[in-house]
Amino acid sequence: MRVEIWSDIACPWCYVGKARFEKALAAFPHRDEVEVVHRSFELDPGRAQGDVEPVLTMLTRKYGMSEAQAQAGEENLGAQAAAEGLEYRTRGRDHGNTFDLHRLLHFAKERGRQDELLQLLYRANFAEERSLFTEGDERLVELAAEAGLDAGAARAVLADPAAYADDVRADEREAARLGANGVPFFVLDRAYGVSGAQPAEVFAQALTRAWDARPPLAHVDAGDAGACGPDGCAVPRS
Amino acid sequence: MRVEIWSDIACPWCYVGKARFEKALAAFPHRDEVEVVHRSFELDPGRAQGDVEPVLTMLTRKYGMSEAQAQAGEENLGAQAAAEGLEYRTRGRDHGNTFDLHRLLHFAKERGRQDELLQLLYRANFAEERSLFTEGDERLVELAAEAGLDAGAARAVLADPAAYADDVRADEREAARLGANGVPFFVLDRAYGVSGAQPAEVFAQALTRAWDARPPLAHVDAGDAGACGPDGCAVPRS
What we know:
2 copies of one chain form a homodimer.
Chain A: E1 2-7, H1 12-26, E2 35-40, E3 53-54, H2 55-63, H3 67-83, E4 94-95, H4 99-110, H5 114-126, H6 137-146, H7 151-159, H8 165-177, E5 185-188, E6 192-195, H9 200-212, E7 218-219, E8 227-229, E9 232-234
Parallel strand pairs in A: 1-2
Antiparallel strand pairs in A: 1-5, 3-4, 5-6, 8-9
Helix pairs in contact in A: 1-9, 2-3, 4-5, 6-7
């Protein structure tokens, strides 16, 4: 079974939801047969690269919250994160464009290091004092290397704005096609969609439901073709 | 869309079928949104590691063919391969256990180099004079390095019989569950199965059919949960 998770590094509920989903997955009897794939979703695609502002400023400016409301929202998210054993800095975080982060995650996927990098990016954005957005590419290269990727190759990906850009956009088109308006958005075997950072029990039920519902294959009947089996290789009658 | 291809390196129709499928895929309008995954299938799982014999000997001994029949079969396969632009040695090839090749392919998958290695293994087995089965691990390490993998890491995988063994077996269990009796076996989005090295036109039709039939997701209705979207991050009402 395959679970695709659309999310953004700048999305606190994605950070929390990933932990809740992983708790359910760890207890799922068929967990070894579940493959998890990260998919790209940008919460703020219109923001220019390099346009960075504090999260609290963004919240008050963009959504018209008072500073106290914005801070209370962050405190609530911090408490939800803590309940999942995650660190969360409720003050001093930055907000910025995440397109390059998603490009780098697609590069990491190709190299089998996607989940390692995703975890490090979440941690860097939500738990660490250093900003993920103001130190330029070298900070990301450092995280890529920590995830087991080649630093030079990661640097080259970041330096080329076209690298993996189509993969990010394809994920975003697919999210729209599947009806996702927000993230995290979980898709199980392309059959069931789950929206939001649901409690682990909801993910556990969805995993069981999707597992039990896997349909039998429709075998395309296209006539004899060459094939090999335990009794040797058969040549088609023509 | 995702296409999984169950196959064995020792399977001539898998070698031919892969080329036919790729021809159809290259002409498919949504080819950039198709992900192809190799899945393991052993044609001769009971054969001991290191038990190597010439293909023609195996065919006469195991299936009771005459030498002329076995050779004619190989000539036919050679002609089918040539029609797809593939080299195929109809004499002097070896047959052996492929479990370690599949383990190595799973390692390559984790490192984003699976298709590169698969192509090199097919080529080594069907087109090259050197045997894939009699030169020990170093021959495979060489091919892994050519596929872009780290030679030391590939050597370590081959030296540890447990490495990726569960992945190979999981693929084989899944093939059985999906009703595959032989290979190549193509599964499109876990919805359509296509058996054998079908002509490219059959693969083209199957790709179109599977693409058009992608069902809408069933959204699991689990109540409000924290999520972020273009309008900010919503906290669930509880």
